[in-house]
Amino acid sequence: MRNDRMNTMYAPAFAAFGGSAFGAISTIVTGWMTRRRRLRERHYARSISKRERLYRSFIEEASRVYADALVSDKSEIPQLVNLYALIGRMRILASDQVVQAAERAGRLIIETYLSPNREFVDLPEFMEEMDPLRAFGEACRCELHSIPSR
Predict the structure, then answer these.
(1) How far apart are CA 81 and CA 84, in angstroms?
(2) What is the DSSP letter of 124?
(3) Position 131 pLDDT exceeds 70
(4) N or C, which end of the chain has less CB nearby within 10 Å?
(5) Of 46, 135, 52, which Cα lies nearest the Cα of 99?
(6) How far from chain centre, in Å, is Cα 93?
(7) How far is residue 117 CA from its own chain's centroid?
(8) Is the pLDDT of residue 150 over 60?
(9) Residue closest to 86 by CA, chosen among 115, 43, 54, 117
C-alpha cells in the first residue's frame, strides 16, 4: 500500500517537471524561429536594396552615355565598359528579363553612337526611341514586385 502512495506522490512532481521542460523547449524554439525569420527579412531587405542601387546606377550611367551618343560620333569606351560592367553585375543578381532589357539598352546606345548626330530640331522625329531605358525600367519594376516578401 505504501508503494502505491509513493507512486501517486511522484505523479505531480513528474507533471510539473514535464511542464517546465516543455515550456523551456518551446521558449527556445520560439526564440530560434523568431531570430531566423528576422535574419531572412533582413537578407530580403538587403537583396532588394542592392538590386535597387544597381539598377539606379545602370539607369544613371546609361542615360549619361546615351545623351553623349546622341550628340557625338566618338564613343566613350571607358563609359561603355562601365555600362557593361553593370550589366555583368546584373547577371549575378537580376532575372533574365532585366538582363536582356539592359543588354538591349546597351546595344541601342552603341547603335546611337554609330548613327548620325542628332540636333534638337530632330527631337519630334525620334521621341519614341528617346527613352531607351523604358523596357529596362519596366522589367526592373516587375522583378522587384514579384520577389516574395519573407
Answers:
(1) 5
(2) G
(3) yes
(4) N
(5) 135
(6) 7
(7) 36
(8) no
(9) 54
Question: Are 68 and 76 contacting, i.e. CB atoms less than 8 angstroms apart?
Answer: yes
* Tally of CB atoms within 10 A around 2: 5
Grid-cell match 531572412, residue found: 40
pLDDT band with cut points at 50, 70 and 90 for residue 106: very high
Domain segments of the chain as ranges: 2-146
Find the DSSP H helices in the chain. 2-71, 77-93, 96-114, 134-146
**What's the pTM value of the predicted model, to 2 decimals?**
0.71
d(CA 4, CA 147): 63
58 with 103: CB under 8 angstroms?
no
Side-chain-side CA neighbours of 3 within 13 Å: the count stands at 0
Q: What would the grid cell of residue 25 be?
A: 523547449
